[in-house]
Amino acid sequence: MFEEWKGKRVLITGASRGIGAAVALQLGTLGARVGVHYHASGEGAEQVADAIRAAGGDAVTLKGDLSRSAEARRVVDEAADQLGGLDVLINNAGDMLGRAALEEIDDDRYEQVMDLNVRSLVMASQAALPHLRRAGGGTIIHTTSIAARNGGGPGAGLYASAKGFVSTLTRNMAKELAADGIRVNAVAPGTIATDFHARHSNDAHMAAARASIPMGRLGTADECVGAYLFLASEALSGYVTGQVIEVNGGQLMP
Fold this sequence. Notes:
The protein is α/β, with parallel strands linked by helices and 254 residues long. It has a single domain, classed as NAD(P)-binding Rossmann-like Domain (Rossmann fold), CATH 3.40.50. Helix content is 48%, strand content 15%. The chain contains 10 helices and 7 strands. It has helices at 18-29, 42-54, 69-83, 107-134, 147-150, 157-177, 195-200, 203-211, 222-232, 234-237, and strands at 9-12, 33-38, 58-63, 88-91, 138-143, 182-189, 244-247. The chain has a 7-stranded parallel beta sheet, with helices on both faces. Strand 2, helix 2 (42-54) and strand 3 form a beta-alpha-beta unit.
């Protein structure tokens, strides 16, 4: 069943670390040609690409600030050019950009959070359409979050709301693009042990999250990979679109 990945052309945004890096490495190992996008973590992106090549795969790195529409379009077009087309787009780039209570939110913070988590995804998806149509169809997968359903923790309101936007847009895009043979789904990670929480969560935040997880521990980036592979595979999920898969150890059971 994994033979379908041989030569598949995949762009993963925000793939220099965490979940994006884990997905990129797995797909590259399976034989996909992978575009590893990054914004600031060039060294991390090159390490991911080198690991894919060492495993016998093919990878290119692409730098760009996806919160800017023109940059998002450029990155997608460059990826398609370097990969020889595009079959799968995984919109994984995003970040909380720090915690802020409602009274602390100003125009700059609002725009930064929404541009990174929403604008980037909308514009990258839009730019991918002609490439996916040229390929005869394909798959778009968004990374949303458990915060889209539970509202997020203290100071995460903007981020949670942006991810709620992503989950809702997933369903609308699935309806709109089905006629083009393009499936659109999303993965919603729960509390995953990546540098995201090292940057944005203190010990109290993490203790509270851990206590709310029936499995009694945080997840890992590698444990999220299977959901992306399932949604990207025509053999496994060819009749699945408009869905959000929760990967959270039971922390949320919708």
